[in-house]
Each structure stands twice: as C-alpha cells, then as structure tokens.
C-alpha cells in the first residue's frame, strides 16, 4: 500500500528540497546567488561580479581578498601524476597568465612567466639596506580529488552545527571536525561537495597578492619581496624548472599551511617506490599449473608491510609507508608507495626495507620474470637549512604575535616547495593559510583566517626593515 504524504511533508522531504533547489539554481545558472536557509545558516553562492556588487566593490582588502580567492578557485589547476609536460596541466598555465596580469596591474618589477608556468616578480623595498624575503605559493591542486568546476559557497556568520555542501549528500560537521567550533560567527568558504575547494594553495596565492596590494597602496615601510607561483607542487615536480639563480633572497616562506598560527620548518624526508609484479594470464579453464596471477602476488607482497606504519595510523613525527596506487590485472600489477620519515637514518632504513622485501620475494617465489623496484627520492627535511637562518623563524613568530596570533610550531607531515629550496641552501619555512581538510571535498577555509595570513605577511615585510 502506498503511503499518502501530505503536501507539507513532501515539502520538507529532502527529495523535494533538492529538486526545488536544482530548478532554482539552474534557472539562475550561477549568475546570481542563491541563499537558502539550512540548519539555521545562511548559505550564499556568489559569482564574483555579484559579490562585488553586493559588497560595494573593493572597499577594503577583506572583499578584494575574497574576490581574488573565489576567482582563482574557478580555474581547474589539478596536477596530473602521469603528466609528461611541465606544467602537467594547461589550467595551471591559464591561472599563471591571469596572475601575471595582476602583477602588472600591481606594478611589480621583473615579472617573468616561464613556459613551464613558473611566475616570478619583484617588489623593491621602500627603505635602504633592506633584506629580501621570498613568498611562494603553488598553482596546482591535488590530483587526489577533482578540482573541475569548483563551486565555492560562502557561509557568512556560521552559527555552528552541520554544514550541507551544495545539493548533494556531503556535509561537514563539528562532530567529525571539532575545529569548526572555533569558527562560530566567522565566514566559512566551502565547495559544493563535488570537488575540493582549492584553498590549498589558491588561498596562499590570494593572500600573497592581497599583501602585495596592501604594501603597494600604503606607505608601510617594507623589505624587498620576491614572489614565486609554481606549478605541480602536489606531485613533487614543480621545482624542476625553478629559476633558483634569479630568486635571490635572504630567506623565503611558502604560504601553504593550515590553521591560523601554523609555522612549519621541519618536514618529512620523502621518496616514492614503484613495485612492478609480472604475471601470466591464461584462460581460467586451462589455468592449472600455468597461470601466474600478478594481482594475488601483489596482495601477498603488501602483507610484508607493518600495518601500524601507515598515514592513517601515525601522527606527529612518526614515519610511514603509504600504498597510494594499486593498478593492474592478472598479467601485470604496479604498486606505488610513498615512503616518509622525519629522521634521515630511519628514512634510509625504510628504503632498504622495501629493497630487501623485493629481493626476498624474488628469492622465495622464483618467478620467471622478477619483481622490479624503482625508488625515487622526492624531498628532504628542511630543518637543518632553516636552523642556519634562525631569523626566518624569529621574524615570523614576532609578526604573528604583533597580529595577535600565537605561533603554532608544527612538523609538516608532507613536503613543500620549501623543502626543495632548503636543499639548495635557501631557508623556507611554511606559514598558515587558514584552511583545513586539504585534498578533500570537505576542504574549508575561513575568511578571517585568510585575513590573518595577509596581516602576517604584511607585518613580516614591515618588521624586516624595523630597527
Ligand atoms: Zn599545498
């Protein structure tokens, strides 16, 4: 028997709600905002022109900062692990070209955009004998989560509780993400549940651009600043064509961290390993004694790894092995691993562990075609280099405190472009952007956090020339 649903029940049902919103949204087709009441929050989806109109243009840097960020999120700059070119995706070059124009508008000097999408520029100091500080952010977003057709949603005056992302089933909740409790009353920016947001690292780009704009428009005394926006950071190859000889700085910062206050200058030593297992396919009816199933062999090989040493089961300075990709069929399987450790000696031991595992597997299995192993070093811990330039940490600490922020020194459980620069001798700690849940559909950033990042960058430039 079919249940009879009263019209008001139907109205309240999720199905009706979704259909209504879909129709409403498609009608206005991103040209205007829609505002819906959901869980007591006001959710607004803004197109950049509309936001400017709504807020009366660029009256202060808060609006300009938000507009910049929303604009950058519209570029699909997802990098591609298998990409052969540099940058690995065209979207990164498109964003770099737009940023190049913005740098010209800001009247920076020595603006250069290489064919590999490395964009650099220079803002001369307005004080004598000033040091030169580098500011770096990356153009790409993670290949682990779609960054195409990002629809950013701006939630003003967050009142606490769950936040529905777009019109799908995704939501973020303080039950799973307790950090949300800290942001009641703030302006949150999220994606619509279909893609990542791209705050990693477009928030960093927007913050650097806005800080440059503030420095240009005010008479704040400041140091020399070199800026670099780089491609393919997420896949660890972005610095291949970085013009290190021209990026002459006393030290630099990547603006690529998480929550407000984060200051990071220790990172993993990182390597990747590819294990290739060869099998022999055969009709299952004739397989007896002949088939070699590379998939089963791969499952067996994976059992060699310590189950407690994975990203999801380790924290702080604990290292891990991470099986990041498992691709193949009966004939051939590739296992891709990330190897991470803060300690250089333990890092080397982890690489030896895989080498020994492969050697033992080959010896025990006596396969007609041996299991192959390729190990590639990705980055080193920047700690030693940063220690040689302690003023890079002292200045960031001081700038944060002067902005009313308590610095939060943390190890980076990953790598940054700063790690590559550190290997070349340039200290490059990492400063917060204000974002959370990077590389995920649940990525979120606060506008207040982004404002704090701009304030800290400006303050660093100012304090660098203070007597
Ligand atoms: Zn990043």
UniProtKB/TrEMBL annotation:
EC number assigned by the record: 3.4.11.4
Assigned keywords, A-Z: Aminopeptidase, Hydrolase, Metal-binding, Metalloprotease, Protease, Zinc
GO cellular component: cytosol
Ranges where the Peptidase M20 dimerisation domain occurs: 265-363
InterPro entries registered for this protein in UniProt: ArgE/DapE_CS, Bact_exopeptidase_dim_dom, Peptidase_M20, Peptidase_M20_dimer, Peptidase_M20B
Cofactor(s) annotated in UniProt: Zn(2+)
The keyword Heme appears for this protein: no
Pfam families reported in the protein's UniProt record: M20_dimer (PF07687), Peptidase_M20 (PF01546)
Name used for this protein in its record: Peptidase T
UniProt organism field: [Actinobacillus] rossii
Lineage: Bacteria, Pseudomonadati, Pseudomonadota, Gammaproteobacteria, Pasteurellales
């Amino acid at each position: 028997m079919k249940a009879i649903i009263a019209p008001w029940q139907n109205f309240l049902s999720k199905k009706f709600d979704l259909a209504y919103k879909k129709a409403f949204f498609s009608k206005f087709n991103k040209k205007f905002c829609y505002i819906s009441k959901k869980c007591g929050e006001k959710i607004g989806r803004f197109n950049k022109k509309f936001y400017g109109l709504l807020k009366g243009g660029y009256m202060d840097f808060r609006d300009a900062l938000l507009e910049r960020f929303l604009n950058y999120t519209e570029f699909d700059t997802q990098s591609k692990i298998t990409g052969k070119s540099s940058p690995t995706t065209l979207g990164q070059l498109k964003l770099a070209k737009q940023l190049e124009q913005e740098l010209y508008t800001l009247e920076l000097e020595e603006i250069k955009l290489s064919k590999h999408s490395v964009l650099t520029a220079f803002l001369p100091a307005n004080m004598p004998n000033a040091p030169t500080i580098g500011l770096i952010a990356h153009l790409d977003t993670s290949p682990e989560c779609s960054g195409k057709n990002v629809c950013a949603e701006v939630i003003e005056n967050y009142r606490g509780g769950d936040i529905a992302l777009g019109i799908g089933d995704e939501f973020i909740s303080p039950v799973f993400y307790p950090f949300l409790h800290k942001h009641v009353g703030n302006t949150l920016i999220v994606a619509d549940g279909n893609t990542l947001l791209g705050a990693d690292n477009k928030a960093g780009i927007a913050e650097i651009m806005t800080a440059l704009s503030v420095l240009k428009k005010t008479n704040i005394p400041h140091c020399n600043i070199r800026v670099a926006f780089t491609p393919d950071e997420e896949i660890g190859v972005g610095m291949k064509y970085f013009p290190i000889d021209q990026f002459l700085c006393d030290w630099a910062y990547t603006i690529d961290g998480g929550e407000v206050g984060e200051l990071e200058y220790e990172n993993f030593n990182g390597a990747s390993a590819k294990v290739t297992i060869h099998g022999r396919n055969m009709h299952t009816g004739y397989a007896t004694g002949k088939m070699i199933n590379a998939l089963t062999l791969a499952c067996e090989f994976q059992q060699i790894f310590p189950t407690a040493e994975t990203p999801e089961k380790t924290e702080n300075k604990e290292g891990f092995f991470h099986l990041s990709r498992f691709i193949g069929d009966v004939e051939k399987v590739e296992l891709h691993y990330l190897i991470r450790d803060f300690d250089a000696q333990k890092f080397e031991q982890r690489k030896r562990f895989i080498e020994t595992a492969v050697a033992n597997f080959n010896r025990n299995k006596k396969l007609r075609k041996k299991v192959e192993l390729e190990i590639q070093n990705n980055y080193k811990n920047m700690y030693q280099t940063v220690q040689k330039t302690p003023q890079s940490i002292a200045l960031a600490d001081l700038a944060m405190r002067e902005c009313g922020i308590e610095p939060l020194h943390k190890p980076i459980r990953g790598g940054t472009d700063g790690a590559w620069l550190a290997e070349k001798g340039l200290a490059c700690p990492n400063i917060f952007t204000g974002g959370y849940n990077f590389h995920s559909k649940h990525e979120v950033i606060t506008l207040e956090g982004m404002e704090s990042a701009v304030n800290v960058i400006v303050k660093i430039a100012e304090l660098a020339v203070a007597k």
